[in-house]
Amino acid sequence: MDDYKRRGYGEINIGMKGKVGIVVVDFQLAFTQKKYPLGGAPLVMRALENTSRLMKVARAHQAPTACCFTAYKSERDAPHWKITAVCEQFRVDHPSSVLDPKIFDERYDLKVRKTGPSIFFQTPVVPYFIKEGVETVVITGCNTSGCIRASVIDSFQWGFRTIVPEDCVGDIEEGPHHDNLRDVGRRYADITNSDEVVHFIETGAVAS
Amino acid sequence: MDDYKRRGYGEINIGMKGKVGIVVVDFQLAFTQKKYPLGGAPLVMRALENTSRLMKVARAHQAPTACCFTAYKSERDAPHWKITAVCEQFRVDHPSSVLDPKIFDERYDLKVRKTGPSIFFQTPVVPYFIKEGVETVVITGCNTSGCIRASVIDSFQWGFRTIVPEDCVGDIEEGPHHDNLRDVGRRYADITNSDEVVHFIETGAVAS
Amino acid sequence: MDDYKRRGYGEINIGMKGKVGIVVVDFQLAFTQKKYPLGGAPLVMRALENTSRLMKVARAHQAPTACCFTAYKSERDAPHWKITAVCEQFRVDHPSSVLDPKIFDERYDLKVRKTGPSIFFQTPVVPYFIKEGVETVVITGCNTSGCIRASVIDSFQWGFRTIVPEDCVGDIEEGPHHDNLRDVGRRYADITNSDEVVHFIETGAVAS
Amino acid sequence: MDDYKRRGYGEINIGMKGKVGIVVVDFQLAFTQKKYPLGGAPLVMRALENTSRLMKVARAHQAPTACCFTAYKSERDAPHWKITAVCEQFRVDHPSSVLDPKIFDERYDLKVRKTGPSIFFQTPVVPYFIKEGVETVVITGCNTSGCIRASVIDSFQWGFRTIVPEDCVGDIEEGPHHDNLRDVGRRYADITNSDEVVHFIETGAVAS
To answer: Are D13 and C82 an interchain contact pair (Cβ–Cβ within 8 Å)?
Structure first.
């Protein structure tokens, strides 16, 4: 038993309840196409498929959904990133800033541009979810050790029940993927899978 | 070489520049005294000592400083924490919510109550730093894999140069401590030490 | 007919619905006691009485409530106020920063310190209301042309149904009081009275 | 002498200092073209001309600038507006959501979509201004009694020196225009004119 567990971390389960909102973080081509420096990692491609399936169910049940991409007008309005490709290519008019059509349906989903790691940071997603009466937020997208981690923290601190289906989030390597699920799973969020979330949306009940 | 490095993560250094603001995260007795369930981890006690020294220098140079603690009136106004001790003991009137006198000087430091993991989340610290013209934010406190991680993300996304002196942040175990410094150090923040920060504050120049 | 009305301002009614949260803005002694420079205006004293009555009903029905005061540690952490008394006396340890016992029950109400005009600005009130599932926010306190105006705007932009019982908000003079109710009543909020709000809380139905 | 003045409102001048950032609020065609329900008010057209001149100076001096428009994907993601035209026409793909070319230069200005009255509410403008080291914010656009009022409050509460050039903000009627300048001018902002702001930007000194 690790020392976090011994001290009572992760003892409480959160659970899904009430209206579900889904956020899809940074499934823009920069991350889903191999030709870009940060793109095409296997865990990310797996998450893209599973999120695509989840989004179809969410739309069929009228759940509020938001898909974001990260992009800037210039280096002036970007924060102090340490990643070369973000500084050079994450531009509003760059082809890699387009949302992957596998997860984005422009007729239904709210599209937001974000400038920080969290999809909730200075975007209209929290006000949208308040107006809709969302109680449970499901986080999907990439990368687990970057923008997913940040989005989970924000969802939690804004007061939502926060759920991470493990097969809907991806990363460049397995290590940081699991390290971050471990950290948030003992503090802020339930780690589950897409089947459980689909079942809850379809039946309003947690799978058992 | 790992796959993050190969893709250009961590290639850019941020650097300290301009006015420095210091934040001290959650050095309340709940984390610094052994008698409490989450308290007294060796890495945390080491960070407490180093932060104490750093704060004395910061105050002598009139740098803006903010120390926060996490506490709630009741379970109603607390987010969905998964940690038993936080749910039961993190109360505004609980003795473990008092800031450790080793790092807090009530004559000088701004004290803020926070309710999420990040010291910047819905607190007056960002407005204070804007008014003061802060450009570089130094993050200290605990735990690296919890509230430090969250505070680093927020400092970065608000547009500050973000610096983490490794010996001023602590955690319950070494693993998550280093995992999180690795994640933020390749994306959002420079990982350095208290000597470098002290030197910069005293001379306005980065140590070389 | 004025030109706003002709262009369609105020054509839509919002209505109360769902769970109600109540905020009480700045009923600290600085505004409710005559001996202080900004204190004791007749409209404010009237609002204090009506809010006191409303809060008793809210507590009896377990509605989430939040009472704020405005205060700073020093001039450094205060924004650029143009009002002398705010700059000199609005301090965390000043006797005029105490909440008026007529509206504040420390056993029940969430007390928050705020630093801007809006009770929602960088405070934990929005996260509290999200966790509670609040749909309708009722705004009380003072002054209508200052912190009430700011709080109404924020409640609206965060996505809540926003209700202002006119007899629960006060100001120094009648002119600015009514000017501001006019501005927000045609855009962001329903202007009603404490009887209507009490009736809705007690019956879950809008009075007719 | 009114009772606000007697109590010390407006006694302190803020002044322009340091780096200037300019925000242009809602000069989208919905407000600048007569054919739309909310468009073409004389005070707004005057403000458009003066802002156009101010923006040319700002760009020539490399000042950070941000122009916003208000628009939604659907009624679901819009807050509870009471104005029919906003509910029906303020859509991301509606021709009236285009920024007026008189004030917007897409090669230079940061364009942001906002969803609340304030240009700072859940948009990347504050992080941009922090990264740029902005100390003084100049507010232009429309309407004085709506989105200008909200933006002034936010600029103030975020800690910036807030300046409103009266001839760069407009409204549908003169009454609410002046009422709101009165309210904010005694609390949060200096009311000045475009010549003073131009002079400060060009010389770094306040005109005397």
So the answer is: yes
For A8-30, b where at least 16 C-beta lie within 10 A, e where not — what string? Answer: bbbebebebeebbbbbbbbbbbb
Local confidence band at A1 (pLDDT 50, 70, 90 cut-offs)? confident
Report the distance separating Cα D169 and Cα D177, nearest Å: 8
B87–A117 C-beta distance less than 8 A: no
Q: What is the DSSP string of A133-200?
A: TEEEEEEEEE-IIIIIHHHHHHHHHTT-EEEEEGGGEE-SSHHHHHHHHHHHHTTT-EEE-HHHHHHH
Q: Please compute Rg for chain C using Cα positions.
A: 16
**Nearest-CA distance from B75 to chain D in Å?**
28
* Residue among D80, D122, D176 minimizing CB distance to C14: D80
Report the SS3 class of residue C106: coil
Pick the closest to residue B160 from B16, B61, B58 (CA basis).
B16
Q: C77 and B124 in contact by Cβ < 8 A?
A: yes
Q: How far is D188 from chain B, CA to nearest CA, in Å?
A: 14
The CATH number of whichever domain residue C188 belongs to comes to 3.40.50.850
Tens digit of each residue's pLDDT (9 = 90 or more) over D101-139 = 999 999 999 999 999 999 999 999 999 999 999 999 999
Residue of B122, B131, B132, B134 best to disrupt the C interface, most CBs of C under 10 A: B122
CB contact under 8 A, A156 and B3: no
Mind listing the pLDDT tens digit for each residue in D135-185?
A: 999 999 999 999 999 999 999 999 999 999 999 999 999 999 999 999 999
The answer to whether position B12 is within a domain reads: no
Cα(C77)–Cα(B108) distance, integer angstroms: 11
Average pLDDT of the residues of chain D: 97
How near does any CA of chain B get to the CA of C158, in Å? 14
Distance from CA of A171 to the nearest CA of C (A): 29
The residues of B whose Cβ lies within 8 A of any Cβ of D are 18, 126-131, 133, 135, 157-160
Q: How confident is the model at residue D207 (pLDDT cuts 50, 70, 90)?
A: low
In angstroms, the CA B114 to CA D58 distance is 38
**Residue D207 domain-assigned (yes or no):** no
ipTM of model over 0.90: yes
Note down the domain range covering B139: 17-201
Whether B204 has a pLDDT exceeding 90, the answer reads no
Is residue B169 in a domain? yes
Inter-chain touch D130–B157, beta carbons under 8 Å: no
Q: What is the mean pLDDT of chain A?
A: 97
**Total number of domains in chain D:** 1
Cα A161 to Cα C132: distance, rounded to the nearest angstrom:
11
Assigned domain for D145 exists: yes
Residues of D in contact with C182 (CB under 8 A): 176
Contact A115 B12 (CB under 8 A): no
